[in-house]
User: Fold these one by one.
Assistant:
Number 1:
Amino acid sequence: MYNPNKFKYEPLKRIDTPEGRRYATPDGNKLPSVTTILDATKSEESKKALMEWRKRVGPQKAQEITTEAAGRGTRMHKWLEDYIKTGEIGTPGSNPYSIQSHQMAQSIIAQGLSKCNEYWGTEVPVYFPSVYAGTTDLCGVHDNAEAIMDHKQTNKPKKREWIDDYFVQLAAYANAHNEVHGTKIRKGVIFMCSAANEYQEFIVEGTDFDKYTDMWFKKCEQFYMKFL
């Protein structure tokens, strides 16, 4: 059930700066986005791995892969947003990328969103006053528990140990939602589908959620110590 009146989500104005994305929030601040903080606090090991990958496949091929994945993800998100709001997914055109993203969205609907009891909003703006802001794919109730949910596309299936940053991101959005809207969300869900239409689902909750919350606020501290 789509219940967009459950909470009042204030729109946040996005501001792109040389230092990364910022959001203008209702309290008058211009706060760094969650993704900006995550990018700025990446470990040297992660940066090195990305550089080695780009070197291995070549800069042109790396850009092609990145652009194709981004386009596929954008299309998939649009199909899912339409479904969440209307209960219908629509039909793709003849474009093969549109057909592919439509199939991926269908897999997420059938195997992931089918477990959701209620949707509060999609592409939801959230912020933690004076600290950070961002936009999460979906807020609502998953398997009878309040949750922050993200849709992810991937070129190939992922192992859980590879996606710590996704879990940190979910914790960031959940804590922001709790702070402003008085919820007690301690669950994050990632609905993931590969280009070959292989579905995966990852859930973080309980003590794991607390662990990623601690990791997130440490990253916030690192960010502000580095840039202020």
Note: DSSP finds six helices and eight strands in the chain.
Number 2:
Amino acid sequence: MTKRLAGKVALVTGGGRGMGRGIAEAFASEGANVIVNYVNNTAAAEAVVAKVESYGGQAIAVKANVGDENAVQAMIDAGVKKFGTIDILVNNAGMINQVPLHEMSIDTWDEMIRIHMRGMFLTSRFTIPHMLKQQSGRIINVSGTFGITGGAEFTHISAAKAGMIGFSRALAREVGKKGINVNVISPAITRTDLYDFVPADERDAIIATYPLGRPGEIEDIANTAVFLASKESSFFTGQTLCPNGGDFMV
């Protein structure tokens, strides 16, 4: 049976841990070669490379802060040098912190926007020329619940995640006729290494309101990403898919 992503090349930002790692490994299980982006933990990124290779694919780990123009350009160049092109881009790199707006520093706001919005812009800006050359590509931007509902004391991440959705819709209109699909995944609370960031009592109270009564698992997000990266999603663009247990319904 042919694997759904056989021969495709995927770049996953923040691919060394959490959802990024899950997406990278799910892509590999479906036949993709993977560029694993990371910013700090080399050992974790190399572990993802080893996992990809265990599925029979090829992978490289590339250290780059996605908010740094030169680093992103070098990362894209390294991926294209290794594999010849990039077919799938997953903008997953992100950060989270919680602070009331009236106590938020300018630097805290700027860093949140830099990693999510500037990072998504830069990776897309330098990857799209390769997709245009082959008249095909998939861009998947990982937003989140707060990008739609907003979150108290998370105005900065809510703004960044909402911006990712608006960016994706505009870009989808821009490049759709050129063979490139652009979509968003907007998960709710998911059991990753950041699961304990929110105090357990607050987190569990939120999860209790979900109609399905459980948090997301990395597999829930990774399976959605595989769908959006595959031919099965060929008529989806500018869409926000919400693996969120019913947190909000659209």
Note: Helices lie at 18-29, 42-54, 69-83, 106-134, 146-149, 155-175, 200-208, 218-229.
